[in-house]
Amino acid sequence: MIALGLWGGPGSRDAAACLIVEGKIVAAVAEERLNGVKFAPDCWPTLAARACLSIAGLQPGDITALTCPKDMTGVLDWFQAEFQARPLLLRFDRSLCHAASAYHGSGYERALVAVLGHGGNHLFRARSGRLEPIKSDSPPLAEAYSEITRRLGFSPHADEYKVMGLAPYGRARYKLRPLLKGKNIETPERAPGQPLDRAHEDLAHSMQSLLNAELLKLLTAHTEGKEPICLTGALALNCACNGKLVASGRFGPLFVPPASGDDGLAMGAAYLAASGGHFLDHAFLGPELDLDAARTAITAAGLSYDEVSDPTEQAAALLAEGKTLGWVQGRMEWGPRALGNRSILADAGLPEMKARLNAQVKFREDFRPFAPSVLQERAEDYFALRQDSPFMTLAVPVTPKGAETFPATTHTDGTARVQTVENGPFADLIRAFDHRTGRPGLLNTSLNVMGQPLACSPEQALRVFTGSELDALMLGPFLLRKA
């Protein structure tokens, strides 16, 4: 079975494609990474589908089945027009596609699966590869969170993570529960671009507190013992809430797939067509860095570079000197979080690094935190972790040693959205940095500036480098430095 999972088209956002060949995920790509338009609204996943086929070395005629959610219409006509092929089409319920994206990648035999989207909450009982719906249309948590995002002057359905980042600066003093019953409430409203004050911080905190409490109550009511939990949908990347769920001790391990938004629908549909799961042990499923293309792009941009024999050691040395570094290696990440292949890296031991990166490199609000990526075998010395966090989906308390060692990634409430790193080139880099500094972790943020997708191509990476005050860029073995 060769199944190409798809999401996109008119009225959509987060268009994506995912290819499963004989039960194994071989590629998954978001359209925004290739067309350069954040969220790829109203786009068919044309470039993403082409990239998946190219990665696998397949032609459109090799596909056994196209597969997608039922609300994606016109798929066969679009595919035939773009790819001159018309495979079998398999369509599945949207919430089931979301649930499958979480459960089948988790490696769990049994779990409670929660799809937390703007279309309501949908719960499933997963057993031995099967998903059975058990509850739908519980309190509209995602809609309430988006409404508070709007009232805070951010873009709803896009900037919810800013509310999460702002929340720790405030306290819970607004009663927002009526929102869950469809009632209007009076709260502060901020025009976009206006200064943030304490009332806005308190509003963000109130919303985050409500989400934490309501989701804990919802899941507790439907778990059977301490069974594993799988989360996906719009709210599943709320790492602050995820951390509270794990810390409660009421459940088994928590799995959140790296792509939990609508891009994850493509992977879920592919899982369902392939009739089985494949444990998602890494997220490096996108295009490979093409070194010839990188060299050509550097030359075309008129930039000078050094080709270094050991990129890992050279990068570790620069980071130990306090430099900010773009790091592009191997295959691009699946999902919105940079996990060490398309990243901006810095020394998290320098307290001033947060303000420097926000102002000079990312060009974003000063309250927003950064994440630490830490060697898995050392992480518990610095963070109160109850499980590994390879996809950066948990915010957890920082230990006193962690706060001292990684001040630039410790948020104002004493938590951090940690990524645990076990192996691969990124782990090698962290070990080389640790050898120089005694700090087994790095500040890790996405290789982009605010409003742009994560960089995929060499050209996109070079635009971030030249358009910001990033000190250096390691593009494969090619090192570029600012004078």
Strand share of the residues?
15-25%
- Reported by name, the CATH topology of the largest domain is DHBP synthase
**For the terminal residues, how far apart are their CA atoms?**
53 Å
Largest sheet, spatial ordering of strands: 12-21-20-13-15-19-16-18-17
Average pLDDT score: 96
Structural class: alpha/beta
CATH architecture of the largest domain: Alpha-Beta Complex
Q: Give the overall shape.
A: globular
Q: CATH superfamily of the largest domain, called what?
A: Carbamoyltransferase, C-terminal domain
Largest sheet: 9 strands, mixed
Number of helices: 15
Protein model, in words:
This protein is of the alpha/beta class. It has 3 domains: 2-95 and 268-279, Nucleotidyltransferase, domain 5 (2-Layer Sandwich); 109-252, Nucleotidyltransferase, domain 5 (2-Layer Sandwich), CATH 3.30.420; 286-481, Alpha-Beta Complex (DHBP synthase). It is 32% helix and 22% strand. It contains 15 helices and 21 strands. Strands 12-21-20-13-15-19-16-18-17 form a 9-stranded mixed β-sheet, sandwiched between helices. Strands 3-2-1-4-5 form a 5-stranded mixed β-sheet. Helix 4 (94-106) crosses helix 9 (264-274), helix 5 packs antiparallel against helix 7 and helix 11 (311-320) crosses helix 14. It is globular. The N and C termini lie far apart (53 Å). The model has no long low-confidence stretch (mean pLDDT 96).
